[in-house]
Specification:
binds manganese (II) ion; three-stranded antiparallel beta sheet
């Protein structure tokens, strides 16, 4: 008798827990897309139900990017953009749109969607633009860099200038423009080249965050030092993949 009651209670519990899991699965699925997409060029990137994990440890990019900066940048700044973005799209048609579609319609969206959607995506893109260990641009990307900029050093110089001269907060980008050529530019705040109302437009290949929160703890006001250090941790394997995808 006693045993039966317990069994029934457990069965009841499992049933409701099961229902809860099924319910949670379906409600998450409304906005869930394979988190693996977070590692791609991000064109089809959709809002996700879970804040994506950093692809490496906080100290992985030491000494160029210190662990404390990485932790605060990821766990405070990036997470806040993510949370605010999810809150901004909750209950709206944006919930089921891909990020690329949201960005393509950005001129019609609110400042909250623009700033936080950009802030969410740009940081995922940025984390995956970096890795420990040395990688190099592919032969195809090198040829494109030489064609557009003359040499790799010249490209770096143009990119560095874009990053240094962005007044206040923003990003520097290497991207593929509408003519399928490489270009370098910068955007203010959390804008990116995928937005229809951005100052530079195209498919991003490489991003550098030049907000003070990205470097102030280690480099204080010395943004150029942070920019120089960045070149030691560029994940060219990822940039090569993004390039191949963008020009095919
Ligand atoms: Mn940032």
């Amino acid at each position: 008798m006693h045993k039966t009651v317990i069994t029934m209670k457990i069965t009841k519990f499992l049933k409701s827990a099961g229902l809860l899991i099924v319910f949670a699965f379906f409600s998450l699925n409304l906005i869930a897309i394979n988190p693996d997409n977070m590692k791609s060029s991000g064109i089809e990137l959709a809002p996700v139900a879970e804040f994506p994990a950093l692809p490496y440890a906080y100290n992985a990019l030491e000494p160029y990017i210190d662990a404390r900066t990485m932790e605060i940048h990821y766990d405070k700044h990036h997470r806040a953009y993510y949370t605010n973005f999810i809150n901004a799209i909750k209950g709206t048609p944006l919930e089921t749109m891909t990020l690329s579609d949201i960005f393509a319609s950005m001129s019609k969206q609110s400042d909250a969607v623009r700033n936080n959607g950009g802030g969410f995506y740009n940081h995922v893109f940025f984390w995956n633009s970096m890795a420990a260990g040395s990688t190099t641009p592919s032969a195809e990307l090198t040829a494109a860099i030489n064609k557009t900029f003359g040499s790799f050093d010249k490209f770096k110089e143009v990119f560095n200038t874009a990053a240094k001269s962005r007044f206040g907060s923003g990003w520097a980008w290497l991207y593929v423009n509408a003519d399928k050529n490489l270009a370098v530019g910068s955007t203010p705040y959390q804008d990116n080249p995928l937005m229809d109302n951005a100052t530079v437009k195209g498919t991003p290949l490489l991003a550098l965050d030049v907000w003070e929160h990205a470097y102030y703890l280690k480099y204080q006001n010395r943004r150029p030092e942070y920019i120089d250090a960045f070149w030691n941790v560029v994940n060219w394997n990822e940039v090569n993949k993004r390039f191949a995808e963008a020009v095919k």
